Amino acid sequence: MVATIRNPILPGFNPDPSICRVGDDYYIATSTFEWYPGVQIHHSRDLVNWRLVRRPLERASQLDMRGNPDSCGVWAPCLSYSGGLFWLVYTDVKRFDGNFKDAHNYIVTAEAVEATWSDPVYVNSSGFDPSLFHDDDGRKWFLNMQWNHRTESFGGAPKTPAFDGILLQEWDERTRRLVGPVKNIFAGSSLGLVEGPHLFKRNGWYYLTVAEGGTGYDHAVTMARSRSIDGPYEMHPNTHLISSKDHPEAALQRAGHGQYVETPDGQAYHTHLCGRPLAPQRRCTLGRETALQKCVWREDGWLYLENGGTVPDVTVPAPASTSVVAQPSVVETDFDEADLPAEFQWLRTPAAERIFSLTWRAGHFRLFARESIGSWFEQALVARRQEHHSFRAETVVEFAPETYQQVAGLTHYYNRHKFHALGVTWHEKLGRAVTILSCPGDFPHGRLAFPAGSGAAVPDGPIHLAMEVRDNDLQFFWRAAEHDTWQAIGPVLDAGVISDEGGRGEHGSFTGAFAGMFAFDTSGSALPADFDHFRYQAPV
């Protein structure tokens, strides 16, 4: 079959795509924010079929996000290859609200993407979204946006002056530090909020692409060029290479923040993030996803989308004939292996052994109930991305709570202000029970709602839990044994609030929806919860 590229190529929460080609192999690195391990790297040989192959930031010396607020952590990695090494540049953001960001930038390297990556080298903290450009004369240049804390930029409603241009400085590989003068090379366009810089060189020109307009519906990829790496840079004739900001009818919205790549035979493509909103409230329940556009070089020396405009396409030509590998409609595990399945991540902590084990009890995934759901420090919540607008997730939990402070079960989770959870707990009148804990976007307080009241009494033994999400609607279910009928519990809940736009709004959070298992024990006893199955099915 002759294939086309169908967007998004990386569905679900996969923002800020940095693409790198080495020979016939393509790699895309995306942001992971507070989810651990840090940075997702997918691999492809045809730009059509992609497979997750590595999350390289996997130990405390590389990344420790305990205490990082929601939507902080790893922002906008940049993946490159030079001198026989892969180079990964990333930010660990320690603060979100208020005038400051406290964004620390690092470099790690590896001889192969699948290998163990080095300990990080600290670079600077002047702003976020760093990248590393390897010039053809052997010099290396570090770029990042500069954050100006002196403006009224705070609380998820940024003002343009806080995004104070793109900084450039040489990075010395021998001393592993920045050297020489630092220069602000690009202030961006009138759209503002300039960030996410990437440089590449072609026919003697330095081309700079940046993200602008914020991460919401005004997002864009802006392009400029210069004969000198430190400028001055002239703007693209259209200013923006990619944007849906003036086209609310486009299927791919929030288009921006990406990077250029060429195939071995010189065909041009450009990644970008995007969102697919659901009616009627235009909430992107799958977060910011990764897409890829076919581009062309025109006689004026500028890059354009092949479709002739700036609005990205859902389908674009693939570089060569290839077969599309069908994705399974059901992904399930019985936790019989010693390693956590690749699709799962957890939150913030490098000390995974404190929150889960696959060896404590054969054939079971044990969560050690820790701090409350939504904690920024040690939360026992392990989950996978929601990749479809409609899906069903199921699990089976064995849990013997002795107090209402002990809860374990199944959750549809975004952050501490946006989640729904069905848990097994204890109630003074019901005894062992299942109930719903929900925080439907209550910012900043994070107050809980209990849509099922005290819940329903359940017998001893394993409890089967399920949730069905159909676009903006979520329904929880439970049953006690294999021969029992599934019972709905609680009303239909707002699944659409589990999105960037839910609650605080599109510039207040930047991750995506997850489906997974959780356990908390605010008594401090670390009561274990054993899960012996997890199933994700889409669509439903």
UniProtKB/TrEMBL annotation:
Record SUPFAM superfamilies: Arabinanase/levansucrase/invertase (SSF75005), Concanavalin A-like lectins/glucanases (SSF49899)
Coiled-coil region: none
One GO biological process term: carbohydrate metabolic process
Classification via Gene3D superfamilies: 2.60.120.200, Glycosyl hydrolase domain, family 43
Pfam families named among the record's database cross-references: GH43_C2, Glyco_hydro_43
The keyword Hydrolase is assigned to this record: yes
GO molecular function: hydrolase activity, hydrolyzing O-glycosyl compounds
Keyword annotations of the record: Glycosidase, Hydrolase
Key word Hydrolase present: yes
InterPro entries the UniProt entry points to: ConA-like_dom_sf, GH43_C2, Glyco_hydro_43, Glyco_hydro_beta-prop_sf, Glycosyl_Hydrlase_43
PANTHER family, sorted: BETA-XYLOSIDASE (PTHR42812), BETA-XYLOSIDASE-RELATED (PTHR42812:SF12)
Entry's family note: Belongs to the glycosyl hydrolase 43 family.
Name assigned to this protein: Glycoside hydrolase family 43 protein
